[in-house]
């Protein structure tokens, strides 16, 4: 196989593998009501099936990016896909909800290996002999394909999830990953170039350099704060919140004094544009996932719609986000990344305001219009933020930066799921949806302010 067809095939495999994380993060949205019924759960408890996935992804992305740099992106990508396939083959047999959350966390860790490995591997692919374009230009096309795959997978997830849950059951949300992960593994094994000779150390050195205490501190502070907000231990909310704050401070001290850190806080401290991209992207996702996870529950519980129909009602979001992505790419070329980001966040705020209409009516035409509108800022801001991260980072730091970028997405999603549990502990109805709409507007204002501060670094 010549280099150009091999490169296209490798990018296809990488795109498929990276799509599994956003696909699985969004498919679950239409299964929450079914899981509550099957396992006898309340709203706050069932959100842990989402939160466990995002916590594992948030911790796994920077770690997997570091391991890809050290041991080879192709090796880490294939290992991640194998872990996904095995976990998803076993998950449908989980006897209780706790084990199901564990399976989601393990699956998330496997999918977390894909994106940072793919970003590193693209740099290898464009330097292969026979590449028709300079590396600086040749990387834009494969990265664009990978970004499109991520955006499209997150958008079509509710549609696929709704059909699978409606016709098969929640177990199908796991089983569908088995052939997809194996296909990505085999394609990358066949088409991607072998990893170059990289550092090989002892297992003890790997454990030491992976900063396990830092990872545990990161996950612990998130868990403690979430448990406080959800009031999982009545009477101990302020104790949990204080413990989470202390843990966060200890985590920050550890990361600033340990080398190499799990989360490079110094990278953020010395790069203000990158920090602003991260903060803006996290807040944007908290707004988006309010609608993404809250709306399906509202339609099923207050509207009485079946999961399959809810998935179809989310279809306009998929279509418009896919259509908006190439349009945003062209707009960035003409107007710049910053203007596209600002326009996307303004549109996000406008759509969040229109979501208030659902407190009065859940008519299908209104839902279709609102989901279609929500897809436009999702596609535009996602691709513009990704490009903002890329141009704000030095080439030698992009592997780690890509991992942290994805972590910001998960932090936003975790924030949304926790707040949904707070506002709708007894179920998502039109009254609680009104509170969510006000919160979405407040967060949109924060995202707008952060985006105004961002400037592209001069080259």
What does this protein structure show overall?
This protein is mostly helical and 459 residues long. It contains 22 helices and no strands. Helix 1 packs antiparallel against helix 11, helix 4 runs antiparallel to helix 5 and helix 4 (48-71) packs antiparallel against helix 13. It is globular. The model is unreliable at 132-139 (pLDDT under 50).
How much of the residues is beta strand, in percent?
under 5%
**What summary fits the major beta sheet?**
none
Work out the helix count.
Answer: 22
Number of strands: 0
Which stretches are low in confidence, meaning pLDDT under 50 for 5 or more residues running?
132-139
Question: What percent of the residues sit in helical stretches (DSSP H or I)?
Answer: over 70%
Structural class: mainly alpha
Radius of gyration: 21 Å
Q: What is the approximate shape?
A: globular
Distance between the termini: 37 Å
What is the H/E string? HHHHHHHHHHHHHHHHHHHHHH
The whole-number mean of residue pLDDT values reads 83
Topology, please?
Elements: H1 3-27, H2 32-39, H3 43-46, H4 48-71, H5 73-90, H6 97-112, H7 114-125, H8 135-138, H9 140-167, H10 172-175, H11 177-191, H12 203-209, H13 212-230, H14 237-257, H15 265-269, H16 272-301, H17 307-313, H18 315-335, H19 337-354, H20 364-391, H21 398-423, H22 430-453
Give a summary of the structure in a few sentences.
The protein is built from 22 helices and no strands. With 459 residues, the chain is mainly α.
């Amino acid at each position: 196989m010549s280099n150009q067809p091999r490169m296209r095939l490798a990018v296809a495999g990488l795109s498929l593998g990276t799509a599994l994380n956003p696909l699985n993060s969004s498919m679950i949205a239409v299964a929450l009501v079914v899981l509550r019924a099957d396992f006898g759960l309340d709203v706050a408890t069932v959100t842990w099936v989402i939160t466990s996935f995002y916590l594992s992804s948030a911790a796994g992305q920077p770690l997997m990016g570091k391991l890809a740099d050290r041991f080879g992106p192709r090796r880490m990508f294939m290992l991640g896909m194998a872990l996904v396939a095995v976990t998803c083959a076993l998950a449908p047999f989980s006897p209780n909800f706790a084990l199901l959350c564990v399976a989601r966390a393990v699956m998330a860790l496997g999918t977390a290996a894909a994106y940072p490995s793919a970003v590193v591997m693209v740099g290898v692919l464009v330097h292969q002999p026979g590449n028709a374009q300079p590396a600086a230009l040749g990387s834009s096309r494969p990265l664009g394909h990978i970004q499109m795959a991520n955006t499209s997978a997150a958008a079509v997830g509710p549609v696929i999830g709704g059909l699978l849950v409606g016709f098969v059951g929640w177990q199908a949300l796991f089983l569908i990953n088995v052939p997809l992960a194996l296909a990505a593994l085999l394609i990358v094994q066949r088409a991607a170039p072998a990893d170059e000779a990289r550092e090989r150390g002892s297992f003890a050195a790997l454990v030491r350099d992976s900063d396990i205490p830092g990872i545990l501190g990161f996950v612990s502070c998130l868990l403690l704060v979430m448990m406080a907000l959800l009031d999982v231990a009545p009477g101990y909310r302020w104790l949990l919140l204080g413990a989470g704050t202390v843990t966060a401070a200890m985590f920050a001290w550890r990361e600033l004094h340990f080398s190499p850190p799990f989360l490079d806080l110094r990278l953020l401290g010395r790069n203000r544009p990158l920090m602003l991209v991260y903060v803006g992207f996290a807040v944007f996702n908290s707004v988006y996932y309010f609608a993404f996870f809250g709306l399906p529950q509202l339609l099923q519980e207050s509207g009485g719609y079946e999961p399959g129909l809810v998935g179809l009602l989310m279809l306009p979001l998929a279509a418009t986000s896919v259509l908006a992505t190439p349009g945003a790419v062209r707009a960035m070329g003409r107007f710049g990344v910053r203007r596209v980001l600002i326009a996307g966040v303004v549109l996000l705020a406008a759509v969040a305001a229109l979501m208030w209409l659902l407190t009065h009516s859940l008519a299908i035409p209104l839902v279709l219009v609102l989901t279609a509108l929500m897809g436009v800022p999702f596609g535009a801001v996602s691709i513009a933020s990704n490009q903002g991260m890329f141009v704000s980072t030095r080439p030698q730091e992009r592997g780690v930066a890509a991992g942290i970028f994805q972590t910001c997405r998960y932090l936003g999603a975790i924030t949304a799921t926790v707040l949904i549990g707070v506002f709708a502990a007894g179920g998502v109805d039109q009254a609680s949806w009104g509170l969510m709409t006000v919160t979405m507007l407040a967060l949109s204002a924060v995202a707008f302010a952060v985006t105004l501060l961002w400037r592209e670094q001069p080259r």
